[in-house]
Amino acid sequence: MKFIHNRELMMSSQALDLVKCIERAIEAQKMDIEELIKKPSNLLFDAAKSGKFEFLAELVRSYPYLVHLLDEQHRSIFHIAILHRHINIFNLIYEIGFDKELLATYEDKEKNTMLHLAAKYPNPPPISNLPGAALEMQQELLMFEEVEMMMQPSLRETKNADGQTPRELFTIEHKELLHNGENWMKNTASSCMVVATLIATVVFSAAFTVPGGNNDKTGIPIRMTETSFHVFAISDTIALSSSSISILMFLSILTSVSRNGSDGIARNGSDNSFRKTDGDYTEDRLGRKNNTKNGRHAKNVTGSVNIDGSRAGGFRFNILNEEMKVTLNESISQQKVNPTEEIAIGITN
């Protein structure tokens, strides 16, 4: 620990010396710092890409306006830090005050926001000390949520040039990692459950094999009054209880089903169309419930929304069933819906 602390102090000192060298070069040559750090390569963005936290921290504190510089992809140092998972560099954004709100609105050439870059899986993957894919997936999700909290609500569903929202991009980019994480958890749970089962078997049999034996006349353990016997009984009980609970926990992991596949919600690529089933009712995107009892089983519901420049629109649903045809017109106000957005909702029994 002492070696690591000394190494960090040395790196911080070297970073400070480098910033001072840059300041002296600026004073001697009367150059602007923006021109100086671009030679021979763009020093600012190279440092962000390689994770040189100490250097960037000193540089940003000395020249705060450098955080607004963009590279050829229109990305700031914080965009690059997120893309390459340099958390310590990204945390510098909290030291610049109001500017972080402005930086959060920046988009690169592919219209990716900071949240889109957080949704991308690094290529090549970062070197991680985490023991399994499940923990790596958890770290990726925490990173995404950290950036999402900083973003304004109106920017969290912004689509990039490929028409993807950040969460859609996160799902696509981390599909393989999610699969590997599930396999890792199941394999780990299987191994641990085998060990827990063996322990439970041993301690269960030990409960009926009392040390010292029983009294032939009374059937009471001979050493029942001894302290060592009490320690054995308590330890055996704790071991049996713990192993039994562990078996149940690992069994629940092995038999668990992904919530995304069993929550009753089917999404059609956006938050503007979905269905939710709950017993004999179906619920649409506005929380309205429709009864499907008494033979009124809606087969298909289709609709479209046309906005005439205001935020008021109209839904028109044609519901076909065996007994009737109903046309429902309802005025919707204060709903943020894209023009001529097609909504398809399938309602089943």
Account of the protein in words:
The structure is a single chain. The chain has 349 residues and is an alpha+beta fold. It contains 13 helices and 8 strands. The chain has a 4-stranded antiparallel sheet. A 4-stranded antiparallel sheet has the order 7-6-5-8, with no helix packed on it. Helix 11 (175-207) runs antiparallel to helix 12 (227-254). The radius of gyration is 31 Å and the shape is elongated. 15% of the residues are buried. Mean pLDDT is 70; it is low at 1-10 and 257-349. Residues 183-256 form the PGG domain.
In short:
The chain is of the alpha+beta class.
Which keywords apply here?
349 residues, alpha+beta, four-stranded antiparallel beta sheet, elongated, disordered C terminus
Give the distance, in angstroms, between the N- and C-terminal Cα atoms: 63 Å
Number of helices: 13
Q: Major sheet, described briefly?
A: 4 strands, antiparallel
What is the percent of helical residues? 40-55%
Low-pLDDT windows of residues: 1-10, 257-349
User: How big a fraction of the residues is strand?
Assistant: 5-15%
Q: What structural class results from the helix and strand content? A: alpha+beta
Query: How many β-strand runs?
Result: 8
How does the overall form come out from the CA principal axes?
elongated
Strand order of the largest sheet: 1-2-3-4
Mean pLDDT, to the nearest integer, reads 70
**Rg result:** 31 Å
Order of helices and strands: HHHHHHHHHHHHHEEEEEEEE
Domain PGG: 183-256
Organism: Acer negundo
GO cellular component, one term: membrane
Region (Disordered): 262-299
